[in-house]
## 1
Amino acid sequence: MKKYADLTKEELRAEYELLKNKYEEYKMRNLSLDLSRGKPNSDQLDVSQGLMNVEMDKESCKSLNGVDCRNYGILDGLPEMKKFYADVLGLDPDYVTIGGNSSLQLMYDTLTRAMLFGVVGSLKPWCQEQGLKWICVVPGYDRHFKITEVLGFELLSVRMTESGPDMDAVEELVKDPKVKGIWCVPKYSNPTGNTYSDETVRRLASMKCAAPDFRIMWDNAYAVHDFNENGDKLLNIFDEAKKYGNEDRIFYFSSTSKITFPGGGVSLFAASPKNLKQISPYLGAQTIGYDKINQLRHLKYFKNKDNLHAHMMELAKLIGKKFDIVLAGLDSLSGLGVAQWTKPNGGYFISLDVMPGTAKMVFEYMKGAGVVLTPVGATFPYGKDPEDKNLRIAPTYPTDADLKLAVEILVLSVKLAAAQKLLCEKKFIH
Amino acid sequence: MKKYADLTKEELRAEYELLKNKYEEYKMRNLSLDLSRGKPNSDQLDVSQGLMNVEMDKESCKSLNGVDCRNYGILDGLPEMKKFYADVLGLDPDYVTIGGNSSLQLMYDTLTRAMLFGVVGSLKPWCQEQGLKWICVVPGYDRHFKITEVLGFELLSVRMTESGPDMDAVEELVKDPKVKGIWCVPKYSNPTGNTYSDETVRRLASMKCAAPDFRIMWDNAYAVHDFNENGDKLLNIFDEAKKYGNEDRIFYFSSTSKITFPGGGVSLFAASPKNLKQISPYLGAQTIGYDKINQLRHLKYFKNKDNLHAHMMELAKLIGKKFDIVLAGLDSLSGLGVAQWTKPNGGYFISLDVMPGTAKMVFEYMKGAGVVLTPVGATFPYGKDPEDKNLRIAPTYPTDADLKLAVEILVLSVKLAAAQKLLCEKKFIH
C-alpha cells in the first residue's frame, strides 16, 4: 500500500470507511484489554514462585557476619546482599547500599534529602534556592518526572535519541546553575527501549555543569533485562565519571522489582563514598534499617549471579514473545507513513510515535473499543506531549491472545486516526 | 540499711570500700554484657518463626479484592490488612494506611513531607518558616528526637510523669505558634513504661494550640505489649480529638516490629480522612506501594485478633520474666535514697533515675565491668540529661543468666557512684 499522504481523496475516503467499519466490529465485541501497565503477567511471576517458599529456619536466618536477620540492625544492607547485587551490576560493593521494596522510594528519599539538607557540593539545602530546574529525557518515565514536579522543579525536556538523550541539548542546559540534575534510564529506557551509547555515557560523565551539586539520577531499572544473550551493553558510569573527577555526580538506582516480585523485592542505591558519608546521618535518622529477611530470602533463592542470569533468560522467553507479538502487529503499519516505533533488545516497553496530532485520537479510539493505553502525554513532563504523537506500549501484562487482539485494534486505530486527520486537514469531511 | 545520706563518714567510707572490692571482683571476670538494646532476644523471635514459613502458593497470593500481591498495585495497604490492624488497635479502617517495614520511616516521611509541602492547616511548607520548635517528653525515645533535630527544630523538653507529659507545661508551650508538635509514646512510654492517663489524652486532644497546623506524633509502638491480661488502658485519641474538632491534629503510628520481627514487619499510619487526602498525591509520588507480600504473610500467620493476642501473651511470658529479674535486682536499692525506678505493666524498658550527677559515673563503672548501658543522655534532646540521672534499662536482649549478672553489677555501680559522690561532696576522699 502507498503512504497515506500520497493517497487521492477517493482512495483515502475508501480506506477510512473500510477502517471505520472494521473498528465498529471490534467495538461490538465489548472487549476489556489493557496495554497500559508496565507490570508482569502472572506467568512471569510464577517463575519466581520458589522465592516465596524459601526455607527459613532459625539457624539459617543469620547473616554471614553473624547478624540475626529477624532482629534490628544493619542500616545499609547485608554485606552479602551488597556483594551479590554489586556483582550483578558490575559495581564496587563499597558504593552500594541496599534499600527496601521500592527504588522509586529511594529516589524520592534522595531528592527530598537534597531539598532539606543539600548534597555533596551544595552551598545550601536545595529548598532554600529559587527557580531550580531539572532535565527530563522525553519520552520518559512519568513517575520520575512526578517526583521532581512535586518538589517544585521546572522540568526541561530533552529529546531521547537512539543513543540516549540529545547530548548537545543537555550540555547546553547544564550551563545554567539552576539546572540541578537529569533523570536517566540508561538501559532499555522507559519507554523507547534504547540504551545509552558509550559516547553518551562519557559525555554525561564528563560534561561541565554550572551547578556544583549537579546530579545524574541513574535508574538502571532494566540492567539485566535482555531478551537474549546479545543484549545491549552499557558502560559503567562510575568508571567514566571517575576519570573526570565527577563520580560524586552519580546517584545510581536499581531494584529486583522486574526480576522477582514488583513491590516485593529489594532495591539498591549506589554512590561514591563521599556521597554515602554525607547521606549517612540522615539515613540513620530515617530508619533503623530495611527488611533484611527479604534480602536473605533473595540471596538464598538466587545463590549466585549465574542463577539470576538463568532466571532472567526464563523471563526473557515470556517477555520476548510478547514483544514479538506487538512488533509483528505493528509491522502492518510499515510503509504507510503513519507511525514509527522502537524494537528494543530488552526492557518492558515499546515506544510508538503515531502521526503528530493523532495520539489522543488513537487513545480515544482504543478506549472506545475497550483497550486501555497509557494516557497520552504521560511520557512527558506535566503529562503534555507537545506533538501529541507518543504512545507507550506495555506488552507484558496481557495474555498472548489478548495482546494479539489489542495490537490489531491499535494498528487499526492508528490508521483510522491518521486517515481522519488527513481527510480533515484537506477539508474532505467537514 | 539506712539512707546513704544519713550515714556517718565512717559508715559511708566502709560501705564504699566494701562496694569497691566487690566491684573489682566483677571487673576481674572480663564480662561482656549488654543492657542497652531495646531489641528482642532470639527466644522471642523464635515465637514468630512460623511467620517465616507461611505457605504461599500461587493461588493464595491474591488479596481479598483480587489483587495479586506479587505484582504492583495498592498504594496504602491491602484492605484486609487495614481492617485487621485497625481492629487490633481499635481504629477506624478508613483512617488507616499500611506502610513498609519501619514505622520510624513513616514518621520521618510524615515530617519531611510537612517540611516540604506543609500539612492540613499550614499556611506554607514548614521549611519556609523560621525558628520552629518541637516538644519532646523526657526521658523519651532518642530516635524521635533525632528526626526533629536533623530537620532543624529547636527541641523543648517537658517532663514525663506517671500519667504522661506534664500537661501544664505542654499547654503553656503550645501558646507559641512556632511550636509545631509533640512526640508521644502514649502506652508503656519509652523508657518509663508509663501510660498516658485519660485526662492527659483528653488535654492533648482538646488543648488550644497557637499553630494552626500543630501535630501530635502518636507512636503507639507498644499498643498490645502488656505483660498480662491486666495491661494499661489507653483512651482512643481520635475519639477524644473529634469531640473538640481537633482530629486533624493526630498522626498515629504503630508497627509489628515488636510483635513479629523487628525490621521485618509491617507498619501503620493513621490519620483523619482530610489528612490522608492531603498526603495522597505526595505518597503517590514517593512509591508505587509497600510490600504486600509481607502484609499477606502476616495476615495468613495471625488470621485474627485473638491469635495475635495469644501470640503477645506468649511473648509476655518471656519478657515479663526479664522485667522481674531486673526489678528483683533493683529492689536491693530500696530505702537507700540513691535511686528511683519504674515498674511497667508492659513495653520494653525500665527507667532508672540514679542520684543526680551520678548517671555518667554509673555508665562508666558498668563499662569498666563489661556491661553496656544505653548512653547517658540518649533519652533527652541533643543527648544531654541536665540532671545526669536517667538510665534506660532494656531487659529483653540478654539471656536470663546474663541479665541477672548485669543487674547485680548495675546495683553495685549505682551504690558505688552514690557513695563516691557523697564522700566527694563532703570532701572525705580528696
## 2
Amino acid sequence: MAFDTLKTPYGERQKILGGAATYFSLSASYFADVRVVAVVGGDFTAENEAVMNNRGIDTRGIEHAKGKTFHWSGEYGENVNEAKTLNTELNVFENFEPHIPAEYADSDFLFLANIDPILQTRVRDAMQSVKLVGGDTMNYWISGHAQNLEKMLQRVDVLLINDTEAKMLAGDNSLPRAARKVLQRGPRALVIKHGEYGATIFFRDGEFTGGHHPFRAPALPLDEVRDPTGAGDSFAGGFMGYIASQGEVNRRVLKHAMFYGSVMGSFSVERFGTERLQSLTRNEIDERFEVFRELTHLD
Amino acid sequence: MAFDTLKTPYGERQKILGGAATYFSLSASYFADVRVVAVVGGDFTAENEAVMNNRGIDTRGIEHAKGKTFHWSGEYGENVNEAKTLNTELNVFENFEPHIPAEYADSDFLFLANIDPILQTRVRDAMQSVKLVGGDTMNYWISGHAQNLEKMLQRVDVLLINDTEAKMLAGDNSLPRAARKVLQRGPRALVIKHGEYGATIFFRDGEFTGGHHPFRAPALPLDEVRDPTGAGDSFAGGFMGYIASQGEVNRRVLKHAMFYGSVMGSFSVERFGTERLQSLTRNEIDERFEVFRELTHLD
C-alpha cells in the first residue's frame, strides 16, 4: 500500500491512497471476499483503512510499522502508457517481511503483487491450501534478480505482466514466442497486458481444459484516461476476483476473467487514484462487461 | 504497383512484386471481382502481370509507361511494426495520372490506395456509381498536403489509417478522441490499424445501422512475421473485398469485414512479398476466421 503523488494532463494529486495491494483489493472486492497483506506507516490513517473496510476487505494483514508509508511520485505525459517516476521513497516497505495472519490460512486464491520475488515465493510457500496463484513482477526484478524470479515463476499458476516485461523476461521480441518461453519456466498461463490495446492470455499446452488458442480481451477506447496509475493492478483484481467467484478454473472461466480484468482497468483510469473503484456497483460492472462484448463480438 | 527490395530478420529479397495495389488486389480477389488501376514500367514483366490474372484480377487498368516501375528499398529490425526506408525511386509513379478504363465505370466499390490526395479525389469523382469508397493515406500527405487531403476526406466513406497517422491527422493523442475528430471531417467510418494489436473501427453517429460502439478485431499472435510489407493493404483488401461480397453495407457487415481484413493481413506477413496471398484457398481463409473468433469470443 502506498501514497501516490502524481501529475497527469488532467490534474495533480498529493499523497493519495495507492499501491498495488490497494488497487487489487478494491477491484477484487466486487467479485469475492478479499484479505490483504501489506505494510503501512504512521501516516496511514484510519480513514485510509476505512476505504478498504467499506468494501468488506479484511485488513487484519496490514502491518502498521514505525516510519512512513511507501511514497511514489510520478507523472504521465500525453502518452498515458508511460509513467515517469520522479521519486520513490520505500520507507516502511524497505524492510517489509509479509506476515500472513492465521485467519488467512484457508484462502483458496492468492495474488502476489509486484515485490521482491524472494518474498513472493515465501508467501506462496506459506499458503499451502491455495488452488490458484497469480503473480506480478517488473523490470527491476527481471534484470537484477533473475535467479530468485526463476524460483517464483515455478510457484505461480498465472503470471500477469506487460509487453515490455514479457519480452525482457523471455529475451525475445516476438510476443507469442516470448509467451511460450515464459510458460516453459513455470506458469500454466501467462497474461500479457498491452495497455490501451487490451491483454492476451497464453496457455501452456495441456493446462486448463477447453481450447488451444490464446485469447485476447480488448481495452475500452476511452476519451479521457485521467490517471493510469493502478490500471494493471485493477485488471489483476478483476481477473483474480472473477476466478475466485467461480466454482472451477478452466479456460472458459479464465477468458471471462480477462474481460472482467479489462472492465475493472477501464473503470480505474477514469478518475484519479482509487476514487472510481471505491464507488462502483456490480450493475455498472456488468453493463460495461456487455460493452466489452459488443466491442469484440460478431453476431 | 511496385518492386520491393527488402531485408527482414528472416532474410532478404531483391525487386520482388509489391505495391499497395498488388497486395490489395490479391487479397480482395478471394472475396470479389477486382479491377486494378496502376502504373508500371518496362521492367514489369508478363510474369508479374500473370500473378494478378491468375487470381482473376482485371488488369486492363494497368498503364505500361516508359521508364522503370516504382522501387522501394527498406528493412525491418526486430520491431516489425517499423520499416526503415533505405531508398524510394518513384520512376514512372512520379507523373502517374490514373486513367479509369471505360469497362470499370460500373464498379460498385472503390478503394483509393495511398497516393496524392488530389489524384484520389479525381478518381473518386470519376466513379460516380460507386456505393462505398475506402481510402488510405500517410504521414507525407497529412503533414504536407493538408488542404488537398481535407477534400479527399469529404469524398471517402471509410478511411483506413494507422495509429500514428490518426493521431497526426486529428492532432490528438487520444485515439477515440482523434477518431471522433476525423469522422467530423468526412468519413462515415474510420478504421485505425494497431499493427500486432489488431484494428478498431469507429462509426460516425447515425451512419450505418446497428449498434453504437466501436468494434475491435484482433491480430493473430504470430510467432514469425517474416515480412510485414503490405500487411495494411492486405487488410484493406480483405476488408473491402468482404464488404463487396455482401448484399448491403451495415455495421454487422463492417464488423465481419474487420475480421476478414485481419485474417488477410495475418496471411500476408507469413511469407515474403505476395507469396502467401497468391496461393490461398477460401477454405484456409474461413478456417483462420474461426481462429480469430476463438481468439476473442466468449462462449
